[in-house]
Amino acid sequence: MGTKTAAVMKGDGIGPEVVDAMLTVVGECGLQAEIVMCEAGSEQWDRNGRADKSYIPDETMGILEGSDTCFKGPTTTIPVPNAPRSVAVTLRQKFDLYANIRPTKTYSRLSPDAGLDCVCFREATEGLYTGIEARITEDTAIAIRKITRQGSERIINAAVRWASDHGMKKMVAITKRNILKETDGIFWDAAQRGVLNTEMELSEIYIDNIMQQLVVNPAQFNGAVLVSTNLFMDIVSELASGLVGSIGLIYSANIGDRFAMFEAAHGSAPQFAGQNVVNPVAAICSGAWMAKYLGEADIADAIFAATESVVNEGRTVTWDIGGDAKTTQMTDAICAKAKEALRR
Fold it and tell me: Which of 314, 296, 303 lies closest to 336, judged by CA?
């Protein structure tokens, strides 16, 4: 077998800083896969005169198609009609990356008395994110929420596999089936069928209810796989990230049957770009997960353990989790502990 390759896009705003942090850590830990750098995002689109119909240049797409996996730094999506579709949505649909997965866990220092420990599974190719919209009149527009049985079944099955692999027994399906009877009816039916002949305990909760339940009693979802359609889980996972202390801690993967894209869950935060103050954990841990996907699990384990140690010690952490360390300082602290673990 030849060397595996990972295409890496630094993205926009704080993207270059957190991606550099990730590359530093995996590189110092001895990642054997070949890193191939490429461009994507609105900043390069602006630099190139906005001539392309996509934030992803053809050259980059060619690199992605020839790679084993990819890492996407945070990118900015300009929120106006006729602007290109977001990089993340484009790649999810291009490579059929239907499972967006965000493990969400409170670090002990940040919440010593109570915490949240769950995994958010988001269907990432359907729902309102298909972007099917139409202007009916000058003052009226509609958007189509597309839900299919195939799409619902495969995200449910992915969640069940994760639960089985990690010893989890609870699944919570998030719907609004009392209103969206047809679309969420298909999703709920898939959830019920998906847990047949398993030991999973399945429950259903409506999207509005889970938002307040997460705030009032997040611990009730500990040990659970939360699964939902595209927009609902996008919202739920954002709230969950706030409950564990900072979205700067949340790493994620977009996984299909033949390809995967890894990324921090947070956005490009251009207001912080170039200041060396943002939390690098989400990017670093996403990179660790990418290393595991590429078959280098020892590196992944060392980085995850090092990150947990640095966050819980609290001596070299960024402002969002109670410290005053720079991005580079926190990165160096994680890197040193990970390398030490690998030497043992």
Answer: 303
**What are the DSSP calls for 156-223, one per residue?**
HHHHHHHHHHTT--EEEEEE-TTT-TTHHHHHHHHHHHHTTTS--EEEEEEHHHHHHHHHH-GGGGTT
Task: Read off the tokens for 300.
Answer: 């992944």
Write the DSSP symbol of residue 142.
Answer: E
Question: Within a 13 Å sphere around the CA of 250, how many CA atoms are in the beta-carbon half?
Answer: 26
CB 201 within 8 A of CB 148: no
Read out DSSP for 273-305? TTSS-S--HHHHHHHHHHHHHTT-HHHHHHHHH
Q: Are strands 99-105 and 117-123 parallel, antiparallel or unpaired?
A: antiparallel
Judged by phi (left if over 0) then psi (alpha if -120 to 50, else beta), residue 288 lies in alpha
Dihedral angle, C-alpha 59, 63, 69, 70, nearest 10 °:
-40
Q: How far apart are CA 243 and CA 261, in angstroms?
A: 25
Put the strands of the sheet holding 34-38 in their side by side order: 34-38, 5-9, 69-72, 260-264, 251-255, 99-105, 117-123, 224-228, 170-175, 201-206
Q: Give me the domains of the chain, ranges plus CATH numbers.
A: 1-85+263-344 (3.40.718.10), 116-243 (3.40.718.10)
Measured distance CA(89)–CA(92) in Å, rounded: 5
- pLDDT, position 278: 98
C-alpha pair distances (Å), 24 with each of 30, 215, 293, 335: 10, 36, 18, 8
Identify the bridge partners of residue 141 per DSSP, sorted by sequence position: 135
Tokens 């890197």 map to which residue? 335
Position 112 confidence tier, pLDDT thresholds 50, 70, 90: low
CB count in 10 Å sphere of residue 260: 22
Tens of pLDDT, residue by residue over 181-236, are: 999 999 999 999 999 999 999 999 999 999 999 999 999 999 999 999 999 999 99
| C-alpha distances out from residue 192 to 30, 151, 165, Å | 44, 15, 20
